[in-house]
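URGENT: need a sanity check before tomorrow's submission.

F., can you look over the Secreted protein record below? I want to be sure the sequence and structure line up before it goes out.
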Amino acid sequence: MPLPRTRGTALRHRLAELRGPDIAAKALDARALAALAANPGCKRRAILDGAGVNKAALASALGSPSVFGQSQFAFTRGNAFEAKVKADGGAELLRLVHEKLDRSAEPPAHARVPELTATGPEGRTARTALALREATETRGEWTLLDHPMLALDVAGSPAFLEPDAVVVHPDGSWTVVEIKSFPMLDGSADPAKVGAAARQAAVYVLALEQIAARLGDSDPAPRVRHRVLLVCPKDFSNLPTASAVDVRKQRAVTARQLARLTRIEDIADTLPAGTCFSPELPAADLTAAVEAVPATYAPECLSACELAFHCRARARASGAVTSLGRSVRAELGGLTTVEGVLSAARGESGDPDDPAVAALRRAARLRAEALGREAETLGNEAEALGHEAEALGTEAVAPCH
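Structure tokens as predicted:
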């Protein structure tokens, strides 16, 4: 008699069925987890990432291949800049950490840089946890962990994450360091890129909090600093500069989204029996499977999700207002389609007491008045031009004396 499945085992079996037979799960990384936090309402991304579906292969099979990712040039430039920041045992990096985050501590004349190599991600994760414990217990000196390996529990499975660096301060607290190759001009950088970096750093903060809890901290918050260091090139040079970024908001959003991922069985239970996202399925069957899960498309998805082009095409085909952006969608309340918005604006549908409907009708009325005034002005100008042409014609045919 077979043993009954536990809830976790049943969920893993269900997710394996969604991926397709003999298809290994694609591991989640920090970028993927950060993208989940950027669009927490998208059930489609939640179930696909939770099941470990390769979204790039899925997008290609759907006929909307992804162009999401970093170019080889940007990748090479980023590696070169990171190597410059970490040169000489991370002296410049530690100087920036001291200057931006911990001026009360002794300046870092030198730092311990423990060896973190080990066999496999599990071994590297254990070695990182040991190095963090040793650095925390050895108070009074700076420690730089270069590319540590962290594990974050996601939907019952570990996601292995590799931040650029983690610095242990002399007081035993930990700071995440994100090194990016986009420039910081006059002390500020592109807000969208900074936001993406903050969400990614928040994932590392959550992983460090889990390590702190395992090391015996009843409250990991004092141990793991929620202000991370973002290091970028200064202006148009290759010189590093830095800014402290508070990631408490991003951390809270990411934590909520990961909590939703641990309940992805609720989403899976709503899918038709036999639903599968294997790229090897016929295009029609695969499209039906993907469309069985609601998506929350927004233009921001184009820089964060491999399925963005497919979802955008579907949103436009259905006339969904989400294709116009989150801010527009938020202003329209219960109106979800472009046709519904136009109908409400024309007074053909919608509740007049609905603030969104009232605002649309007022805007339509003002637009009509403006167009009417413009048409009247154009008419007057045309009439004046007609009179002028008539006068010129009269002069042309007048007899000469």
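My own read: Strands lie at 111-112, 142-146, 150-154, 157-161, 165-168, 174-179, 227-233, 240-246. The first strand starts at residue 111 and ends at 112. If you see anything odd, call me.
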